[in-house]
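sry for the spam today, last one i promise. struct tokens for design, 230 residues
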């Protein structure tokens, strides 16, 4: 099976606080993996390293089989990975929801008309069609989170990396995101503290502990994903 993400012997520190040392990790096509860990264990840091938004001091990151060293390498890979930031305010920067969703497709070289069609399709999928002209800045936290999910999906990525996609969401919106994920046909790596949600949408889970990956049993079998409870 194709390796989508390969991290080898990575070291990363904020100032002098070391978060990862000689850290290795692999993520394969077809996997739907939950990433859990205590607050501050480094989950968001790991996802941002994968996306090339933080730079390791040592080690290698390979995405879709290509070693990513320069910002250009990561930029190319980022066009294929839909990423949801933990804080939607880090993700959304355009005046309107429609603009935010169109940004990715336009960046990929789509025409205005093509991008617009991708935006409409994604908004409909998320039950957000009435949001297209809304001013992003004025949305509630939950609405922003849904729009952030939209920006990740609108690009028609090959994989998703999601940092707590359901924070601030009500039960109905959570269910919608779960359904969108289960139906999307994409591999994904998802961080969530909500174990009910997580165990519904993933086929395996891992835990980040003391800067290393340890296995994490799933808590309930899931008919849709066929996950394996321990
Ligand atoms: N910009 C930063 N500068 C300095 N330290 C940081 C920075 N960002 C994160 N940290 C620290 O790095 C550690 C890992 O943070 P990270 O955000 O990756 O944790 P997390 O597992 O995502 O936590 P949570 O579950 O709360 O989201 C924490 O101790 C945090 O305080
Ligand atoms: Mg985090």
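last one done:
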């Amino acid at each position: 099976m194709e390796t989508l993400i390969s991290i080898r012997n990575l070291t990363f520190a904020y100032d002098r606080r070391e978060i990862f040392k000689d850290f290795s990790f692999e993520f394969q096509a077809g996997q739907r993996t939950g990433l859990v860990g205590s607050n501050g264990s480094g989950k968001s840091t790991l996802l941002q390293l994968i996306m090339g938004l933080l730079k390791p001091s040592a080690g290698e990151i390979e995405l879709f089989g290509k070693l990513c060293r320069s910002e250009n390498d990561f930029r190319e890979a980022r066009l294929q990975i839909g990423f949801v930031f933990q804080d939607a305010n880090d993700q959304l920067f355009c005046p309107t929801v429609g603009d935010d969703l169109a940004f990715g497709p336009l960046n990929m070289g789509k025409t205005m008309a093509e991008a617009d069609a991708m935006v409409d399709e994604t908004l409909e999928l998320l039950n957000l069609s009435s949001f297209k002209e809304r001013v992003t800045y004025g949305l509630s936290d939950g609405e922003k989170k849904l729009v952030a999910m939209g920006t990740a999906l609108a690009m028609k990525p090959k994989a998703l990396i999601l940092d707590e996609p359901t924070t601030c969401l009500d039960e109905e919106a959570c269910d919608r995101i779960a359904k969108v994920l289960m139906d999307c046909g994409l591999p994904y790596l998802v961080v969530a503290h909500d174990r009910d949600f997580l165990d519904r949408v993933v086929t395996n889970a891992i835990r980040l502990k003391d800067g290393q990956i340890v296995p994490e049993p799933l808590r309930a079998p899931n008919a849709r994903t066929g996950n394996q409870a321990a």
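The chain is about 35% helix and 25% strand. ok im logging off now
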